Predict the 3D structure of the following.
Amino acid sequence: NTLAYDSHTLLGIPPLYGGYEYTPLAINSRSEVMLKDKHNEALLLMPRILTENAGFSATLSDTSWANYSVIPDMRFVAPYEKINGSKVQGRHATKFKVEYGVDDPSSDLPSVIRRNLIFFSLFKMCPSAVRPIVYYKGTYLKGEDTFNMDELFNGYAHLHYLSELTSATAQTDSFLMITNETTHTGETVSFYDLLGLEPMSYKNSKGYDVNTIALCALAEWFNYLKQNEVYDNTRIVVVSDHGMGRSSEALIPFQEAFLAHGKNKAMYNSLLLYKDFYSAGEIQTDMTFMTTADVPTLVLEGIVESPINPFTSNLVDNVSKESGVFVSTDNLFMPHHSKSEYIFTVPDDSWYHVKDNIFIDSNWTQEVPR
């Protein structure tokens, strides 16, 4: 019963990292501050509070739309000595393909370079209007399938090698904010048999495979934390900035799955998993109404008393969700899609007020925020 604030990352990420002051509606209420700056504020809220008030060090990896750059510009953390920024996405994909014998031409770097040099020449010869077709997301006409599989491996290898990328030797409390896009493509990947999980249960369910391999990779990392005796004293939050909603199974819990604009509610149903310090036992399902903006309060609870947003001097809490929240159903997924650099230009008919149980139709109301 967890709600996201948009079906795209651009509007969905700020509340996840920054809480209720960074929902799309709250961001628009601060119309004197540029969107890029408010986005960076949201990314920095938890690490700043923990490093400045609780003696933590902080490491951020691949934070979505950092500095409003498609490839995260991690230089936005530079002013903060105790906050480190890194880019890991894609750096271990070739290693993974070679190690597991993935039959993919992109693992042969020299061949890729030779091919792309030829297509780059064609790219330079083409009129500007045709260049995006030749370039095609950096694949140079390889096509969507190749792009998606490359994107998948860029993300999955990051999770697969987490035990090599992390250590249990820090002398101070540590905050890790890891962004990963393994599940973003929704690819069907069971034929790679990456984890020996054969057969996967719902092979025809779009998105099942990528979610399965991502969660299994995290489970392996959690085992690593246990082996190094840091699992119990680690608080863990696993959360998605929006849902996928591409399979019929994802729509089953909803009475009427589709909204006025044709989007389905499952795209606003985020995953939210939470393990507190020293908690143990069987996994439990909690149907309490949550939103992705609850993450900062979950992370900070019991560590920093009455945490204050260092950018606005306001209390970080989740009181505002008690009367419901507003989500955007518009298709603003790139910074240039907004007609303003200061607010998200969401049309009046693209707002929904949502409260309590997201699986009940009457709790979704199309209305203009006041």
About this structure: The two ends are 25 Å apart (CA to CA). The longest helix spans residues 208-227. The longest strand covers residues 57-61. DSSP finds eleven helices and ten strands in the chain.
